[in-house]
Every structure is written in C-alpha cells, then in structure tokens.
Write a structure and sequence with these properties.
By secondary structure, the chain is α+β, with helices and mostly antiparallel strands. It is built from six helices and eight strands; from the N terminus they run E-E-H-H-H-H-E-E-E-H-E-H-E-E. It has helices at about 20-25, 30-35, 45-55, 55-60, 105-120, 135-145; strands at about 5, 10-15, 65-70, 75-85, 95-100, 130, 150-155, 165. Strand 3 (about 65-70) and strand 4 (about 75-85) form a beta hairpin. The protein is globular. The protein starts with a strand and ends with a strand.
Length: about 170
C-alpha cells in the first residue's frame, strides 16, 4: 500500500485492484450517479477495469491520480480524493467522492486539504482547479472552504451540461 498523505484521522493511498468491491459500491451510490455520472460499472470486474484504466493508469502516466481515503483507526474505506488531469482542462483538478455514511464528518475537507498540500508541495502543481455540478451544494461548500472560488461555467464536451469551474484565484 503506497501512502500518499496522512492526516490525524486518515490515510490517502494508491487505489489497487483489491479496492474493486469498494469502488463498485462507491460509483453506484446515488450521489455519485447524480453529481458525477453513471459509469455503467455493475460488476467487480468492471470496477477493476475502471481502476486499471482510470486511477492506476493516471499514477503511471501523471504521477498522481485519485486516491483511496481510509480511516487510520480501523482501515475502513471512506471514499476517494485526488487529482485528475483532464484533456479538456488546462490545469489539474481535485476530485472527491465519499460514501454517504461518511459525509458531514469533516473527512472530505481533511482529505482535500491533504491532497492540495501534496499537489503543491510534493508535485509542484499549481494552480489546482475543481469542477462540480451547479446543484452539488456540498461540493461547492467544500471547494470554497478549501480556498477555491467560482470562476465561470464551462462544458467539458459539447454533449455535456455546463458545470462550475473553481480556481484558487477566483
């Protein structure tokens, strides 16, 4: 297990194929589907393919990606938080998703703060931006708490709805 960052309560580490059952649950959570989108992942094998073609490929290509967030006290998997390099954005963006039973407890802010520190100080990436759906009020609040500010509405592709772009400079 490659640990990227630690906080008082959390460890952020590379996702591995053994995380496929957890990823299957996370990507099929109603809030994931509503705010991130249905990835069509319905089996553990499809979740493993998502890990190989997404986060694990990003680690190899970019040196960063989405990380597993787990509680240090009991190793319970809470969600994921990390960095994404999208072809349609000029800068790396931070992304996060947590299972509903772990929201509202400060875990996402703690993980996002650790990821932003890692991006700036270990990877020398700046600026780090973020995107979210305009109706994802929890994410908007978290991004603002992390020091990011709404900049403008954008669309990542012609067939996709407009989303909010957050930037550290507003």
């Amino acid at each position: 297990m490659k640990i990227i960052a630690e906080t008082d309560r959390l460890q952020l580490c590379y996702l591995v194929l053994d995380d496929a059952p957890f990823i299957l649950t996370l990507v099929n959570d109603p809030s994931w589907i509503q705010f991130i989108g249905d990835r069509g992942i319905r089996t553990v094998a499809q979740a493993a393919a998502y890990l190989q073609n997404g986060p694990m490929a990003s680690y190899a290509e970019n040196g960063f990606g989405l990380y597993l967030v787990q509680r240090k006290a009991d190793s319970v998997r809470l969600g994921m938080c990390g960095l994404v390099k999208r072809p349609s954005l000029p800068h790396v963006d931070i992304g996060f998703a947590f299972l509903p039973q772990f929201t509202g407890q400060g875990y996402a802010f703690e993980a996002a703060t650790a990821v932003l520190h890692h991006a700036r100080h270990d990877l020398n990436l700046s600026p780090i931006v973020a995107i979210t759906a305009p109706d994802n009020h929890r994410s908007i609040k978290l991004l603002e708490k992390c020091g990011l500010h709404f900049q403008k509405m954008i669309s990542l592709a012609a067939d996709q709805p407009a989303i909010m772009l957050f930037h550290p400079d507003g």
